[in-house]
Amino acid sequence: MDLCPCCSGQLYKNCCQPYHLWRKNAPNAEILMRSRYSAYALRQADYLIKTWHPKTLPSKLAEEISDAKWIDLVIHKSWAGKETNEAYVEFTARYRNKNGKAERMHETSHFIKQGDHWFYIDGIFNV
């Protein structure tokens, strides 16, 4: 039994897999963030595309996700935005680039909810 890549400590089948298989929708932005991280780690471009708001979706996403080996994820905090359908998640993700160099990404991601679905909008990189 494999642990979920999102570092929740749960088994993948009980954590992010039901979202990846569209058996249920992420109930909040933090869960969507975790499931998207797992999708990067497992190279599931379709899930990333479907959970990225169409207005901000990059054109070369599939090429970008194949280069990194994701190591771990730490969620620092998550909070609601000014609007009821808006939320933010601050996290740090560590990965190895295609040359094997360890790097980290510290980001505050912006999400919105439309209907029953949360979508990633964009993020601000923190130094």
TrEMBL record:
Pfam families: SEC-C, YchJ_M-like. It comes from the Bacteria. Coiled coil: none annotated. Transmembrane segments: none annotated. Residues 28-123 form the YchJ-like middle NTF2-like domain. SUPFAM superfamilies: NTF2-like. This is SEC-C domain-containing protein. The lineage of its organism: Bacteria, Pseudomonadati, Pseudomonadota, Gammaproteobacteria, Orbales.
